[in-house]
Amino acid sequence: MKIVRLLPPCLILASVVFAQETFPGLQRVLTDTEWKRAGLDKLTPDQIGVIDAALIRFNAVEAKSIIAAATASTPPEPPAGATPAEAAALRSRFWDKFGVTKLANEDWRRQAPMQARVTAWQGANRFALDTGQVWEGTENITYEILGREIVIAARPMGRFALTLKDGSAEIRVRRVK
After folding, report:
1. Does 149 score more than 70 pLDDT?
2. N or C: which end of the chain has fewer CB within 10 A?
């Protein structure tokens, strides 16, 4: 279980490391038209190098903050010998604010996805989680999710999407309780 929780931060770190090493430079990222419209064709190679270095530095700082947010938003491990109810209560307290109002300055990409088990259906499209939260699909839920581990991830504009651990398609959901 600990390995599963460490996987997302490790993947983020790996992508950052490889992205920095393979940054092709602005000239390869932009089309010829964009390059000329931005006036970059008038700059010296040294000036372009300064801009490229600044972008790499900025990307590294952003990646570090994303990694810190991902590792900080990993639920705590229940103590050894904890009952399933105690473990669920611990996860519930940790994820209590997930899916509720978001802060205006918080970037949705920095919010770690929540993993939980579906414990009950509460209607045709509404379901309860082992964290005590209740969610419903804003579109039809076509998968049987009862008793299954799911992942709910933040999306732009305060929205959320549900996927099964097997990599199923995303279903838009919203938190009810």
Report:
1. yes
2. N
